[in-house]
Amino acid sequence: MRSFAYQRAADPSAAIQALAAASASNNPLTEAEIQPLAGGTTLLDLMKLDVMRPRAIVDINPLSPTWATVSLENGNLRLGAMARMADVAANPEIQQNYPVVADSLKLAASAQLRNMATLGGNVLQRTRCTYFRDVSYEACNKRNPGSGCAAMDGFNRSHAVLGTSDKCIATYPGDFAQALIALDASVDITGKSGTRTIPFAQLHKAPGDTPQLETTLEPGELISGFTIPGRWPRSAYLKVRDRQSYEFALASAAIALDVQDGTVRDARIALGGVATLPWRARDAEAELKGQKFDDALAERVAEIAFEGASARSHNEFKIELGKRVVARALHQAMTMEI
Amino acid sequence: MTTAAPAPKANMGQPIPRYDAVAKVTGTAQYAADMPLRDPAYAYLVTSAIAKGRVDNFDLSEAQKVRGVVDIVTHENAEHLEPAKFFSNGGYASTTNQPLRSPDIAEEGQIIAVVLADTYEAAREAAHRVKVSYTAATPTASFHSPGTVAARAKGQLAMFKDDPKVGDFDKAFEEAEVQISAEYETPPQHHNPMELFATSVAWNGDSLTIYEPSQFVHGLKNGVATQLGIDPDRVHVVNPYVGGAFGSKGSMTPRTAIMASISRRLRRPVKLVATRDQGFNVSTYRAETRHRVELGAMSDGKLTALRHEGWEISSRADAYCVGGTKTTTRLYDCPNVDSLVWIVRADRNTPGFMRSPPEVPYLFALESAMDELAYQLKMDPIELRRVNDTNREPIGGKPYTSRSLMACFDEGAKAFGWAERNREPRSMADGEWLIGYGCATTCYPTQMAPAAARVRLRRDGRVRVEIAGHEIGNGAYTVIAQAAATRLEVPVERVTVVIGDSDLPPAPVAGGSNSTASTCSTVMMVCDQVRQRLLKAMMPNQGQTVGQTPSGGASRSDQRLDLDREAAFDALGVSVIEEYGEWKPDGAPADSFRAMHNGQVRMVGGPEFGGKIAYAFGADFVEVRVNRFTHEIRVPRVLGAFAAGHIMNPRTARSQLMGGLIWGVASALHEATELDERYARYVNDNLADYLVPVNADIPDVEVILLSEEDTQINPAGVKGLGELGNVGTNAAVCNAIFHATGQRIRRLPVRLEKIEV
Ligand SMILES: Cc1cc2nc3c(=O)[nH]c(=O)nc-3n(C[C@H](O)[C@H](O)[C@H](O)COP(=O)(O)OP(=O)(O)OC[C@H]3O[C@@H](n4cnc5c(N)ncnc54)[C@H](O)[C@@H]3O)c2cc1C
Ligand code: SF4
């Protein structure tokens, strides 16, 4: 960790102003010299490891009163970026109307971390690739553009099989983002040139040739909240990992279904633990829509979800596991009592 | 009585609360890094990013600019310390690869520089700004790497005595009606105790004080003195509490003498807390092992041939191995036994003791093979153990001092509901979960070593016991207090115990589960010296000897001290009686006490116990559930039944065994250090990626303590059980997985991708 200046922003405009200096350096967001601090569970962690080296951090926690609200209005769910994971997971209305949201948060991290961590910080958490997190490895295109990728032929059991490139195979580790992308959420963004709203699906970037560029946020921009249209009581999050709690997904699936008389009218499928960014399996959804559900269909859908997947030496199993998780999660969502 | 404090059965002490419970729970217990130092320089290690090669150059310019940096020590300016001899060859050190002597690098994570600064933050920042250029050579990572050389363990290290054999294995195996031949593997594992590897040092003139979590303060004191070339009496190691150790804090690591030498140079106390990831290399680990086990049996299950061959990884610098064949060749009755252990050298740090070092990997192999044999024989695995149970080990024909293995199986089976198991694999299920039951034998050698103690009794009944034992979470304070209270017939609250300090009378390393047996036997003996003086004062003419506890003697429950203590003190004309004594177990070598004061351990027990063999036994039962679809593996229930001689305190005993069972499950399903084979580097060197079980993984653990009396081991009658609980559990888990799925897993850890059903 390197010494840094600490600033506390009293309100959104002060935060934007303090962060404005970041734009000048025009670094990718994650390398920006000035970083907002929310729960700090990603940022401080990576600073201690010397992976992130901001010159200054702007504490946006004072924004919580206005940016931490959660509301269900006109059938849409609005989530403030500063809402804490634990609070949202425990919200009875969300548990009832958006189980996939509540479960993706509840099954993440630990109780202590969920108390600290915010939704905004959560979607921007960075990969757990151990080579990325250990600066003694020279080769990491994400951390050190152009240096190579130590994981490609190294120990890559936790790495991605979808959305990879020959520059980076790091998994996007978060759970909540899978719920957001599945439910067609949008993101509200505030910056020095005003506010904008984009589909959540456009927030993250695939690694391609520039794995260091992880999102479409401009330096100095802040996420103020998320909106999920509609209600999804028939939705579920299935997360598989080596231990039963406190671990990132080896494979997970966020599922939301609209079912009438056994026929699937609408279906949403997102995959976690297997892709380089929050991953929506649209072709798989298309296969499901308008069909009578049965287990054979679920397996076909799962097959489609992993078309084009490619593995390295230690993560081959994720393709088969991922399919089984999708099929199982579909089954669970179908059989939910709502 | 509660679950945590089981009611004592015959030959068990009271489950009194831990002596140090309040101090620990309220945070007043001071660990090494909590000890106040005046104006320390904070040390931060810079460690090697390559496993083999050399440092070409350090660029320190940016680091030196960090405000508060005091000094940066590299091989170019470090004091050259005396070489450290390997502990197994008469020295004290965990490794002989001494860093900061040359630019050469022999292992990943080797200390290559130490940054000293006025604050921890400055030291860390400067360390991160040190730039190192290396010339790297291709290292050998493990068994599968090119460039490995295997050599027989025998003759390479004093600790490994022999490859036990008896009879004619080849012939018997060939003639056996049923044969099993299988290969097994266990992964590297790191102890990861909660308390990090901290070292604080302060000089006062030419005297050195060290605050460091240590399982062996007298060893550390003598080792550091040797490396610094000073009189051991000038070194004082203080260490009242150890926040977990599991073997990783048993031998001296290079960091201690380095910190002491830097502190001497700076004329300032130095404080180091190595980080979690540095801890993977700063100390030792359990190296990966491979096994081939061959069993031959008759159709009634009687073993006729047993062969166990093991391969273990060690460093280039040192030959280390755990050599568990000394146990696996003696566990069951079998007339024809053969064994062989190999050491394979790689470019790694030197491995070392980790909780039940030999038994965890070697019993995994044997107890898995026994289960395979039971299935081939269509026999209940418990009955297979019964058929081959014995009171005499087969190699030398020595009698076990006591052995309650089958009693453990029978009580455990009853409590677990083993009878409800349908023997067929894949025969039990609950919805999407396949259910399996598995069991395995657990055992651990009963070991003892010489120790000394000082006991002071006051007229008012207050007692102070001084012995350089170690509180590593084992309950040392508590059981020592109980031993003294019982012998001197005072309430346990009146006993003060002082341990963890090298100025106290020496006790052995807190390893090999010898602590309770050694320290309690010693304290009992010295308490008896005190009693003796009181009795003499009361009955000057009778010259009677009371409560003598010759080793091996059976006088634990001897006559009460039927005297008026205050009258005895008055008769003596003193207000305090203090006695010092040195105790050694049966069969300890002649140089035992001299060695003890030099920080050397002369441990006896297990198969090396004169004409006898001494082990504690138990039986582990596990229920696993394997998800049909996702292949997730869960362990809803673990049960262990154990017999370990006299149980000093059922509460602390249960806690040790319960922790052991959890470890055992972890050693099957969770714990594994992953290697990047290209670089011989540990990849998951943090507690997010190095998996240990969380609460959700271990819903139900049951510990059953059996009554057992053993009058042949030591005066305390104690077998030691700190390392009993986590042996065999890994096999029980895999045996249960076989029962659930029909698939035999022979390579640990079991990850869900290994399940193929
Ligand atoms: C041991 C461990 C286990 C974990 N396990 C899981 C898991 O199983 N599943 C899971 O999903 N997550 C897991 N996490 C990740 C955890 O959920 C995230 O660290 C957390 O959600 C981040 O939120 P935060 O508020 O602490 O973010 P911070 O650390 O404060 O911020 C993260 C990043 O986002 C930026 N940022 C924060 N808020 C905003 C904003 N409003 N606008 C723009 N930029 C912003 C920061 O500058 C920083 O770069 C785990 C973390 C740890 C340490
Ligand atoms: S996978 Fe990506 S993050 Fe990991 S080492 Fe390669 S480039 Fe770096």
What does the model show?
The complex is a heterodimer of chains A (338) and B (757). Chain A has helices spanning 12-25, 43-48, 64-67, 85-89, 92-97, 99-106, 111-116, 119-123, 176-182, 282-288, 295-305, 317-334; strands at residues 5-8, 34-37, 56-59, 70-73, 76-80, 186-191, 194-199, 222-228, 235-240, 251-260, 263-272, 279-280. Chain A has 338 residues and is α+β, with helices and mostly antiparallel strands. Among the domains of chain A are: 5-62, Uridine Diphospho-n-acetylenolpyruvylglucosamine Reductase, domain 2 (2-Layer Sandwich), CATH 3.30.43; 235-335, Enolase-like, domain 1. Chain A has a five-stranded antiparallel β-sheet with strand order 4-5-8-6-7. In chain A, strand 2, helix 2 (43-48) and strand 3 form a beta-alpha-beta unit. Chain A is globular. The mean pLDDT of chain A is 96. With 757 residues, chain B is an alpha+beta fold. Among the domains of chain B are: 32-139 and 201-277, Aldehyde Oxidoreductase, domain 3, CATH 3.90.1170; 451-583, Aldehyde oxidase/xanthine dehydrogenase, molybdopterin binding domain (Aldehyde Oxidoreductase, domain 4, 2-Layer Sandwich). Chain B is built from 17 helices and 28 strands. In chain B, helix 12 (476-488) runs parallel beside helix 13 (515-538). The two termini of chain B are 45 Å apart. The chains are: A alpha+beta (338), B alpha+beta (757). The interface between A and B is medium-sized, with 33 and 34 residues. The structure holds flavin-adenine dinucleotide and iron/sulfur cluster. The site of flavin-adenine dinucleotide has 28 residues of chain A, from strand 2, helix 2, helix 7, helix 8 and strand 8.
